[in-house]
Amino acid sequence: MKLSELGCGESRLETIVSYILIGGVTLSLVLEVAGIIEFYRTYGSLNILTQDRSVFIQGKNFFTFLAGVFGRAKAENSSLFMMTLGMASLILTPFVMAVVALCYFLWSRKLKYVLVTAIVVVIISVSLALH
Length: 131
Description:
Elements: H1 10-43, H2 62-71, H3 78-108, H4 111-129
C-alpha cells in the first residue's frame, strides 16, 4: 500500500501509527506465545525464573541490554530469546510510533507538533536509557 492511498493529513498519520501499533503488539504476542510453547516443550514446566536470570533487564540501560541479548542470541536458550524479544518489541512499539510521528510532522512542517513530539521522543529515549 502506498502512502498516497492512505488518505491525507492526520488521517494518514493515524493510519500509519495504527499499523505500527497493531504490528508491534502482534509481533510481541506471536513471539511470546511461540517462546512459551517452546519453553514448555523443552523444560516441561513454565517456571522461567529457575532457568535463566538473563531475561531480566540488566546492565547500564535498556539499549545495552538489547545489544547483549542479540550478542548472545546463538548461545542462549531460543525460547527465552523469543520471549525477551517479544517483550522488547512491546516496549519499543510506542518509541517507534513517536519517532514515525516526529518524522511525519517534520516532513509536513508542522513545527508545533514537531516540538511536542520531539519532547515525547526525548522523554521515552531518556527513560529507556536510564533503565
